[in-house]
Records
---
Amino acid sequence: MSRRQVHLGAHFPGVNATTVWRDPRAGSQVDFSSFTHLARTAERGLMDFFFLAEGLRLREQRGRIYDLDVVGRPDTLTVLGSLAAVTTHLGLAGTINATFNEPYELARQFASLDHLSGGRAAWNVVTSSDAFTGENFRRGGYLAHSERYARAREVVDVAREFWDSWSGDALVADPGRGVFAAGAGIGTVEHTGPQFDVRAPGLLPRSPQGHPVLFQAGDSDEGREFGATYADAIFTMHGSLEAGRRFTADLRARAVRAGRSGEDLKILPGATFVLGDTPEQARERAYEIRLQQVGPEQAVAFLEQVWGRDLSGLDPDGPLPDVDPDPASTISQGRVKHAKDPVAVARGYRELAQANGWSARELVIEVSGRQQFVGTPEQVAQEMDDYVQADACDGFILVPSLTPTGLDEFVDRVVPLLQERGSYRTAYSGTTLRDHLGLRHPHQHAAHRATA
Amino acid sequence: MSPSTRPTLLRLGVELDGAGRHPAAWRLPGARPAELFTAAHWRRLAATADAADLDLLVVPDSHRLASEREADQRGRLDAVAVAAHLAPLTARTGLVPAVPVTHTEPFHTSKAIATLDFTSLGRAGWQVEVATTAEEADAFGRKGVQAGGELWREAAETVDVVRRLWDSWEDDAVVRDVATGRYVDRGKLHHVDFRGEHFSVKGPSITPRPPQGQPPVVVPVRDEASLAVAAAHADVARVQAPDEASAAERARQLRAAAGRDLLVLLDVEVLLRPDAAAALETAAHLDELSPGHPPRCLRHLGTPDSLAQALAQLPDGLDGAVLAPLDLPATLDLLATDVVPLLRARGLRPPAPPAGAAGTLRGRFGLPRPTSRYARPVAGGTR
């Protein structure tokens, strides 16, 4: 089959502004039934994986808990562990912060999930340097910004030592010979480095995937280098098709420089979508969703994040603020910064608003998180397929706007069209997430050598 | 000893560990040792416990390899991961993973158990453990070995802060008020601002208040230091003692120290066979295969009938038992098929519940659902 295959993941709608909680159909953000529904829908749609993000401190703005978006979420690993019991093939991917955990426990938790799910675990490695989040942890916020990727590398290095610590045949379990686990097959991890000083025997037999699939998200040069060197999949942001091709080519080239194959890396941008029976209907629905996502209060709050100033007096239906942003502001805590150069961003917003006659809220609706794929199922299927065939990415992590039914229509209407195009599986051909993504097993080479 | 006429139901839990608590149990027929790290193994055990309507399924945990002998079972899945997997597959039994608190983050423990409570629909509990060895300290590499007293003082702080984090969201914090654009009423979210001897935690939790409000906290009582923690913080205490009488005395001390009532369960290692001689033979065989594993608590080797009798005669002050089968699944199967019906016949266990009947673990124990400690008594206010 020469046609490139589209890989899809399903992102649980979380605490970001894309999640529409105002809709009467919006369900619980914590009840397990919501997670079950979305995961089973993704599995019905033969998707590669379910994806759950993580937060470790409630966001604050102007010194108060931010209350305009969804607030609160369950523990990532526990939800994935429970979902493993109600799904059979779906990969289970979750973000876990490497700053506030130790490699030993992360390795064991992900190996446990991989064992119990039959090889479906994936870890999106992120690090955090902010002392704000650190206040919830006994180890505090000690990590310097510049050390984030050094820590990520060392965490993964040590975790991989633990995952490799039992040889492939260490678990003997032969009552006749009276050997449960061969002593020679259980290595001791000994690691001394800038971040960790660890010594322990491996605690678990190798899990079905050998190593859980590793995701990386983070677009800085350092982040890309880490991703190209360590990750199996890159959770990126979606741009134009041309931007996607440049990004994908860059990551694959970096992977090759790191001694890997470019195809060892799956590039998966997050993607929002809106479907309609006609292009016009899709556009109308998209705008209605934007109105729900950006209420008057959310519009002002968004501008406060960019401006770094208290804008509580601003009329969302009037013009943008006259004052310039405060680039040194810490008004918003616990979220990734919107703008690296807020003064320039504000200037651009003003020009846009003036040229189009937009109010503050209309401007925010246009510039923040517009849906990426808007159209009929045919249009969306074709556009997504075009991205993959042009190697602008390997597929998408779909971010529905509605919990928990936001994926239903996509699975019912777009997936069959992708299948018709020959770009999407019609049945799972493997059982592990590595199988679904077409990734090699990390111990494959060693195993071949051993039997050669 | 006179036959007991216990007025109340007997609380009954099991602690399930691999092929059983005995390190050689994997060698017995029926153990399926190659499957011990699979979901299928745990699903079978949990289905048995759930169908028998047991009160608790405790999943033990530690950060140690347990044994250096090739002949012994070793290696262990993360207990929270096991409990999470079993949550959607069970409907009745409370799921109680052990979480060693010495080297982990209280914030993580809090949200993990809260989330297990969501995915099990209110059947989560938490057993507090401490990590005493250099082996475990070296696996984390963050601090050295601590003395027992300090370990349990730190554990007490962990229970305290975990409970505060569970309360840090009031039950009605999520308002979804379309008119004002507010998803939560932030007046009902509370910084816990915990500052202890060992750590500080700001809060609030990232996870909303769990279905039970406060999932039951189980504390093993092994010494004076752990007894103090159980007295201060436990909903359920597991008492280890060499015999029933000293266990009852321990329960009395515990309640006196606590100044309140709490459930006290006796730890019993069990190995059952249809006839007593076979049980004794099997236990002796296990000790031959892997010597040097004396009982960690009371041990009952016998038949379903002898165990049911022993349980029926538990002295006052002990509300029931947590049974740790030395071998699996054989002993657990006999518990389900024989011991539970025998106890039912004596009126010591509730009748078999109708299929689909579900309740919370607190409800099962007759514990009321507490309101958040941070909730204002006046309802309806918005700050």
---
Amino acid sequence: MREFFESYIVPYFNFWVYVILMMIGMFAMITKNNLIKKLIGMSIFQTAIILFYVSLGVKDGATIPIYFHEHKEESHAEGTSEDAHHKEEESSHESVGPGILTDAERKQAHLEAGDHTPHGEAAGHAVNPDEFTNPLPHVLMLTAIVVGVATLGVALAVCQLIYREFGTLEESEILTQIKQSNHG
Amino acid sequence: MIWQFDIIILIFLVITAVISLRVRDLLSASMIFGVYSFLICLLWAEMGAVDVAFTEAAVGAGVSAVFLIATVFNTNRRSSD
Amino acid sequence: MGMRILGFIAVFVTGALLTYGVADFPKWGDPHSPANAGEVSTYFIQNTKADTHVPNIVTAVLADYRGYDTMFETVVIFIAGVAIMAILRVLATIPPGHQPVQYDPRKKIAYDPIISVTCRLIVPVIQLFALYVVAHGHHSPGGGFQGGVILGASFILIAITSNLRSALRRFSEKRFIFIACAGALIYSGFGLTTLLFGRNFLDYGVLSKIMFDTDEVMARSHSMLGVEIGVMLTVTAIMFAIYANLSSRGALRGGL
């Protein structure tokens, strides 16, 4: 039972819930009588799709898609460079602790490592893509949310127009009134 | 990414979605929809999508609930289902 | 009742198909799934730092690599705002023989000094925070969309706590339409300027020629800020416009 739970339910739980939310939203859009309820169902449907996209971009053990602050990046670059490593070992008796350099030492090690690019950019130091969450779905969904609220606004404006015409937001009553006006 | 946390939020998400569609008072439905948006914002922060979470906190939990309430104020508060 | 059963059937068929699809999905959090190991997102993660010097990859992709997309998202928001104003302006004109809705004075919420004073104190803080979100979007979560929504929400807060008239006195209809247009024009203006220098639309690197003491990389970073400000202006104006129109049925007086 526990094995089944951990191999089938937990790894796919986001996807199961995305299916459930999509069904809830779709059911509300089809069967609810009130137009505002239909719109809430539409918003739930929309968030289900966004949930699907964002869940696809998750990587296990990855951090948020923002680079570390610059001086961390530098010390990381030094750690990979042999010259800087040598320098660090030489001066380790003066340092606060292993791996922690004072500012002057860091600057010197930086120069010795031959890193002369502006802004302290670690040239040739490739970022491991597994370290960061996939940013592409985030970008797509960020704009989708804001556009979604703008279109929700349009739908609500149309609802107000319908309410002035028919005096109700119930779909069945609106349909009866339309039928009566067609016969009359 | 903590899967226990993930599962708790997702369960609450389904519960709030169902309640906001079942409740007959449209003002309450709008407010519960705001709660739903806030929960999904928590979920995104937990999945590492910080920018999406920020947008959802501002848009979903803030502005879209206000738009719904503004419309409910100008139309009918009761719903038949 | 028949509709309900048909709805059930449609929903369950869709659900069954989606469940069938879920079984073939890559495992949760797999870094080598097709979506995650794709060429495009790997390029963004590896090269954003060298290309643009913006630590927040999402902002860089939003405003630079996919700038064309974001420009038209902004235009979609602008069009939505204009559409709402157009739809609700029909409501504001009273047709002959139609009784205008009288606002029930009992509906009015009594003036509450605590709420009023608290909001008067907190609105400047919210607006400052919104500007911070836009300006600091390169280094932390944030950007034009979020900052714009927060700035718009601060005006909505004024309208809710006092009344719509005093919010419109600060941010009148003429002004918010102007600002919404200005935001979209700032964004496309950046694109047109790059065209004038003979580059592609929204290829910001070339703007280092007119910016003071910048190389191509920093020019992209600075142009992103400019573009985000354009987005912020449009989103701020449209969010407040939507609220003002929805809450007052397009009449822009009375209201919530």
---
Amino acid sequence: MRLSLSSTSILKLFSESFDNTMVRKKKNDEENGKNKKRARHSLPNHNRPQQFEAFCQDFDHAFQASVPLRKRELWVDKYTPQCLEELPVHKKKVEEVKMWMTERLRNSKEEIQSHALVITGQSGVGKSATVHVTAAHLGAIVCEWNPPTPTLWQEHIHNSSSGTRYTSKLDEFEAFVARIRKYPLLPLSSSIGPRKPYVLLIDDLPLTNGKFAYGRLCNCLHVLARSARVPTIILITEFIKDDSNDNSARYCEDLKSSMERAGASKMAFNPLTVNSIKKILSKICREERCIASMEQIDRIAKASGGDIRHAITSLQYFCLTPVEMSSLALSEPSEIQSKDKPDAVNPVSQELSLPFGRDETLSLFHALGKFLHNKRVCVSPNGYGRDAFLLKERFARLPLQMDAPERVLCQAHGQGRSIADFLHENVLDFLDNESIDDALVVASYLGEADNLLAAASHGSSMPRAITSKYELESISQMAAASVAVRGVLFGNSHPSPSRWHSIRSPKLWLVERSSRQNQNEMLRHRNEACSSLSTSAMSVMATEYKPILKWLGLEPAEAFHVHNEKIRVGDKMVMDNSGRKESDDLELEMSGESDAGDDIEDW
Amino acid sequence: MLWVDKYRPKTLDKVIVHEDVAQNLKKLVTEQDCPHLLFYGPSGSGKKTLIVAVIRQMFGPGAEKVKVENKTWKVDAGSRTLDLELTTLSSTHHVEMNPSDAGFQDRYVVQEIIKEMAKNRPIDAKGKKGYKVLVLNEVDKLSREAQHSLRRTMEKYSASCRLILCCNSSSKVTEAVRSRCLNVRINAPSEDQIIKVLEFIGKKEGLQLPSGLATRIAAQSNRSLRRAILLFETCRVQQYPFTNNQVIPPMDWEQYVCEIASDIMQEQSPKRLYMVRGKFYELLINCIPPETILKRLLCELLKKLDAELKHEVCHWAAYYEHRMRLGQKAIFHIEAFVAKFMSIYKAFLISTFG
């Protein structure tokens, strides 16, 4: 806070005096590492341009003496691996990186065609740590591209009033790449004595939005990978693919492949194993002299999902507040589960009982698979006697071999609509072929779900002013999803023997799209070809005119051609199209049994 | 030009089928200011024809110069603006449109467009302010909200614009709207009337129409004059001179539904249900309205069904038709109906034949 008052004036003052050093020396960085962090804390919500940040670091130096923060250091920083042995990464991977680096550092430029290495992996698997440690081991200096802070809109307005021009971060990155290709890295500070080799590390790719920007980034990296003269390491953080709805996962793949085409070597880091995380955690525990039982460490490690950074932070948090790890939760995992297979830990129930841990995500398909396969626990009839009130036989079902469906839905980020559509598309495959009654139950429940969804999406029966409108919608969305899932689970009382089914994406979507296309086409048709004085309804067009027009050999289209030369080509095409469609249609009718699916698919 | 359009009576005097209605309308329009009108009746009974003729009666031949416009309306819907695309057919005196094409956003269309029409009302030669006519088709397909907003706009702008509403079933139009209109019921023409029209067209075209064929066309037309004329023209294209027992081509989609019905009767299993779903998709892709599919399917099933089951099956068809209206995706409900039918039918077969 202490800086925020004067920040604007200082910014102006210093914006000229600090040159825009994008490549800063890592050493310098390390010294200031923690101060920088503190500086960030001191100015929340206030993104500053880079010069100012540099300024802050220096400013902080002055204060360093007065603020004794040493003790509160984050363990993540404190226990950053210093040598190769400390790295939690698999030995072979480290060795690979080391080999790559030594080769590039030792050999002159001519012999090796590519100086780029792409390292991919989830967050917290030690990508950057490996690079830093290896470089240090080999005596090389790591130069980072220091990504500029993103500009906020308010800030942009502020800047533009003060005359600073906005440059997109992508532009800056491009400029940087162009520069780095042309000029070798200049020794910025006093590099007296033997020149140390450099390794360039690009940790943080600029954020891109949209296809165009992404294409630029792709190009840029491609060029970089092909023409880099210094050993360049590019880190790409992979996200867990299923919980990002956007295309980032696909983008990531594209980036990788494009750089590989440019000759970059590629290395993928896997999530850390639970054991290696455990090892590190217990080491930290020993050093910090905190009391955490083996079991607790084990659970933290498991909950972290292979993310060491997360695990360490969790541990620190855990040691900070020595809660009694809810012994309740430990002693009562759900009864059936413990009976059935006691060794299977249920990650979800644990996760809820602990004050840390990441939310586990499931892919949509995984969740659908669970619902559709409808695995149930086999219990002997007297096994669940205690509190079971007796149901008629046709209503009774065995207990589910999964968490409550709603929880699974929650983990899979299931939207009511898509869940219902997917279930509708696939459920019939999973039913026993003899039991049409099951199909009836399932179908009617899906119908209910659809009605709920319709109520949710219309939602207009409720006054707009009610603030909780969106909540209401989401509640009925959730209700619909739940009805759909539970309906499927309940209805499928004789699951067909488990075998491998692929889960199709709903054909319904395709059908709707092409139906809409046809409708538009027909509308156009109506306007162009029908010379009557009034329009006719869509349904009439579809059910009466269209078949007749077909019998009449598409007469009105011809008539239309005479009228209007210009649209002729387009219209002709349309007509051909529909002609083909109709002939397909006819074929279908002739052959009767042939699969209607193919026909839909190729539109 | 199709015969349907070619021989559509242009004025109220030339109307053949609903002569009495036409004469009354003529009196109404010429003698006094005309109220809002609501035409309802089964499809193919001549509602549109009458509407066009009424408009012509009001404004003279000028109303026949129509142009088709595909207009985008910018609608301010509270927090955001919507872009709605809608096709309108308009002359200087009237605008015709299908607001239900806009789907669930129909209420905006209704409000916005009437407002805009009311803003620029025409001034006739004597400097008197005239009124415009707005023809709304398929009012019964409008959502409840749209019908409500229609009611309000009707009152607010009644000075500057007249509404002519057109729908198949007046029971799906809200009471409030109905009571603000003069309701005109247009019956489906009887088979005799259809035959009369066919003979009239045959004479104009200079064709020999054997009476047997005319009767058969009329019988197959389902008392829809439009379909009868379309079928007649098809027969002309396929075979002339006519013979009494020549084939009248059936509608392809109806045949397809028939096929679906026999599929369902053949086997009752989830697998068959899945196959049938594919066929329904085929129909839906071709824009056959789901209600029509369901209705047709029921007819086909009833033909082949034991009398004992007919009542129950009809009940369930009605049930699922209602659910379909409440829901969004028709296929869910059609399929539920088929599953229900299969279940009933299978139980029946087992109990009968063991």
---
Amino acid sequence: MFSAWELILQQLVNGLILGSFYALVALGYSMVYGIIKLLNFAHGDIYMTGAFICLSVYGAVSGVLPGWTGIAVSVLAAMAVSGLLGFLAQKFAYRPLLSAPRLSLLITAIGVSLVISNTVMVITKSQPLFFTSGLDNSLGIKFGSITVTYIQIIMLAVSAILMISLTLFINRTMMGKAMRAIALDQDTCALVGINVNKIIGLTFVLGSALAAIAGGMACVYYGNVQYNMGYMIGIKAFTAAVIGGIGSVPGAMLGGILLGLLEALGTQFLGSSWKDVFAFGLLILILILRPNGLLGRSEIERM
Amino acid sequence: MPNDTPLIKVEGLEACYGKVAALGGISFEVREGQIVTLLGSNGAGKSTTLRAISGLLAPSAGRVFFCGEEITKMPPHEIVKRGLAHLPEGRHIFKDLTVLENLELGSYTLKDNNERKRRLNRVFERFPILSKRMKQAGGTLSGGEQQMLAIGRGLMASPKLLLMDEPSMGIAPLIVRDITNIIKTLHDDGTTILLVEQNAKMALGLADYGYVLDTGSIVLEGVGSELLKDEKVVKAYLGG
């Protein structure tokens, strides 16, 4: 039998892992919203594409490069493909509509989402694909009768490193500062010499690459990939971004982790069929108390 | 650059917003070391002229030359690189970014970090208040301080030409005098300035040469001190 603290530790780890997926995907949602006020509903499908590419590439390279090396190579390939896909969607689907009403942009995003998921549906003939990493999922650090596996530890470490790096990039580099400035005032950015389109493109590439990493980790963690797997995580990540304060990078991280933890706790105390009710119920409560999200800023402007 | 090439030369510039014509073919030039002012009432086309020069607005006809090079169809970030900084009306500080970040972005096209630091120090020497407020969000500064920040951000590009759009707008009357002095100092240090103002008295007091715009056309031009005495100008813009 598990003791109470062992159960809490177990759910904490589960929640953090789930939360890392949400956070990595929510970052792309939030950055894109921050910079061009678009709810990019195709973002979940970019994540799915990442998972799909990771699985396909690993299938090809695992004979030569088994284990973590092969997975790393596959995730890098997934980042490249998803990043390119995000860039192309931005360049050909969204950019021509940047001065159109936001609703046109939103509908275009839904269209891009359908194009991507249906393409993968056709390729996979609607069948789920299975991923065998060959990693030993029983190795790890034991806490009483609970094992936190090395896979889990590595995934959490990778997520943490990614989020820290992104935070440094946004706050310390000229490009990161330009990204934050574009979210505030595009014309003035152009006047100080920022190539606005280039930075918007970069934002899509970054967000998509992060989603692809989450997709690759989902491959390893869940072991299967399906063309419609982006839908639910898209909604969850969007929720996480809103909870944290859409447009805010630390907000997306916080919202994602929080949502993951709430779901894990909900599963523990109410059972898995009630976890979404529990998590979303609490999230509604948060939004009633803080309509702009936990770290979002109010839209009231000082003149 | 030979001395007879104007720093900026505008030829037959036309612009429109949708179907509404805003500029009906204006021509003028600014020579190195000058302060030139564009005067005119609201809607005369002053800001439109600056936006068309800096590339924010695509002109529908006409040409713009900067240091002899045509820049008419260039995107704004390419024009900035050549040494033209446009300080838009209303200051447009990045309000959530710190004062320091605002200034750094002013030198975005610069790759050399040491040069960036040198320019920062020069801006801080000119505006010591900005160095005190370095870590504060730009939006928390007062109107006058924001105007200094906007000017400082423009100077970070080390521009050959500064386009200033209504630097006195929305600023307390006492501070307008400070802004006037700042523009004078910039001029004394050799910066060429194209100044757009509704405050004609201030602008003509500073300018070497002035153009008066009315509904998209230049209706009058002359040496600053003479325009200041011109009956029509006095009547229309100085409340005489």
